[in-house]
Amino acid sequence: MLSACGRAAIVFNGEIYNHKELRKRLLARGYQFQTTSDTEAILNAYLEYGHDCVDQLRGMFSFALWDRERQELLLARDRVGIKPLYYAFDEQRLVFGSELNAVMASQLIETVLDPQAIDDFFAYGAIRAPRSIFRDVRKCKAGHRLVIKRLPRGILALTTQSYWRLPARQSETALPYQEAKHELERLLLESVKIRLMSEVPLGAFLSGGIDSSALVWLMSRASAARVKTYSIGFSEEAYSELPIARAVAERFGTDHQEEIVSADAVAALPSVLSAHGEPFADPSSIPTWYVSQMARKYVTVILSGDGGDELFAGYARYITIAKERARLQRLPAWMCNAVSWFGSILPVESRNWNLFRRAGLNTCEAYALFRTNFNPLMRRNLYTPEMAATIDMAHTAVIHENIENHDNTTNHLSLPMAADFLTYLPDDVLTKVDRMSMAHSLEARVPLLDHLLVEFMQTLPISYLFRPDRTKHILRDIIEPHLPAKVMTHRKQGFSVPLNLWFRRELQSDLRDAIESPVYRTAGIFNLDYLNRLFELHQSQRYDLSWQLWQVLIFSRWYHEQRTQMM
To answer: What are phi and psi of 242, to 5 degrees?
Structure first.
């Protein structure tokens, strides 16, 4: 879209929820509008505020805006990282897009793999910004903007700027708990209301967990229309939350649809990997693909409860890490080091290796190790010596640069929560939701990640969010009177996929074929003997290595698809 004055042009992916208010302010300052769209509101906001226009936007976005007068391009990504932005840059050219596939389709970028990105993938299951799987392509980090200026003789210069940071967690607050509850409920309801504005059919993902159930409750309050909900379950009943989701749907009288996923659902892997563009091993991509496909039959916009675990301290691992850090704090340093040394003599595939080794690390380092699938020694065994020599594993272990700046407390959970919000949330959770929904032309909105809500939550002490053996304390207090009791008491599962069972049954031959594939046999990257060892250890049931083997399968399938496209 061109601005009315012809000075600026924009391409934009996302949704600006405060564009009507922004439009009123800009009209009062004399700006002309040719449409009622949020896209034009960004254009005029740029003309008024320059690069700081991003500070005026409430919503999810990535955009590129060309200023003809200044001969510069502004690229920006929303604060939390809901919408993606890839780019490749040198002094002669810039290529950018919302998908890695779009950038690579330019055929201007070499398909050279980034060894550090490969290590990222096998450590965490996803490649963290600013890296991508290809050496010459980068991701704009959440809350960042890029300014590209055209200099004399056609030279391009790029500057990266952070325009928003997750505020530091406060250890104390002047807001009493009951007042905090009321303000949180108000912000939640407001966030849902502004995301219900739509000219097309709208619904919600309903997993049966606390976040999506709370979202449906809020939607039922904010809208006079009957809420539409969509759920996916598994044929293995122990992994399925359909009965819980169904109880929530019945409580609020929603128009509810559900489907069952089995191991046959892996047939969607080529499409899933194509939508991601790079290796991505969160297995919940599979059910997210299918629930998006189902929802798109009925609606065009979907509300999702993603972000609640990071915002409200909802992961079960927070209970584990909090107890672990508290125990270690009571021990003398020499004893912690002794525990860590004992871990070093255990088999590296054992969960206890990871547990004991964490004893000698600080909170940031310990949580980085806690979050890895292939720990550092497993990854050294996984790669050929030549490949290992190209990787800085210490860099992979850094969850986030300067993460200490996000902590004004002594609580053991503050740093892990910040780490998840700044890395796992944008690089895994939001990546999955965006790619799987957009692959079906379904727009996913995430009310729990409104930046005003996020900033408010950072003013609350951890004690408001988390109690021993009780996650999401303040959110539970708000919603418990309104939801079926079973929602509050059942063990959290989300879209947990029964990989352990699948690899010992339906997917066993698929995994064997993956290990025998060219990327593991002939690419000079991996140690085939170690891959075979992992397979045998899992099949013998000595260790559950299903997450690691899923990554092995995913990387093989992705590499095969890439080679097929390049031929």
So the answer is: -60, -40
User: What single-letter DSSP state applies at residue 2?
Assistant: B
| pTM, to two decimals | 0.94
Helix (H) or strand (E) holding 478, with range, is helix 473-479
Find how far residue 8's CA is from the centre of its chain. 32
What are 117-138's pLDDT values in tens digits?
Answer: 999 999 999 999 999 999 999 9
The beta-carbon contacts of 95-100 under 8 Å, at least 24 apart in sequence, are 96/64, 98/13, 98/62, 99/277, 99/435, 100/132, 100/133, 100/134, 100/137, 100/276, 100/277, 100/278
For residues 222 and 230, give the distance between their C-alpha atoms in angstroms, rounded to a whole number: 19
Residue with tokens 């065009």: 300
Is residue 434 within 8 Å of 86, Cβ to Cβ? no
Question: Structural domain boundaries of the chain?
Answer: 8-162, 177-265+277-313+415-489, 317-376+393-412, 498-567
State how far the Cα of 415 lies from the Cα of 407, in Å rounded to an integer. 6
* Residues 340 and 359: beta-carbon distance below 8 Å: yes
Pairing verdict, β 72-77 and 144-150: antiparallel
Q: Going by CATH, does the domain composed of 177-265+277-313+415-489 fall within 3.40.50.620? A: yes
* CA atoms of 498 and 262, how far apart (whole Å): 9
Q: Average pLDDT for residues 77-101, to the nearest whole number?
A: 95
Q: Give pLDDT tens digits for 242-251.
A: 889 999 999 9
Question: What's the token pair of residue 315?
Answer: 């992961």
Average pLDDT (428-447) is 97
Query: What is the CB-side half-sphere exposure of residue 471 using CA atoms within 13 A?
Result: 25
| Cβ contact 480:488 at 8 Å | yes
CATH topology assigned to domain 8-162: Glutamine Phosphoribosylpyrophosphate, subunit 1, domain 1 (3.60.20)
211 neighbors 308 (Cβ within 8 angstroms):
yes
Q: Is residue 404 very low, low, confident or very high in pLDDT (cuts 50, 70, 90)?
A: low
- On the question of pLDDT at 567 being above 50, the answer is no
Per-residue pLDDT tens digits for 481-505: 999 888 887 666 555 667 777 787 7
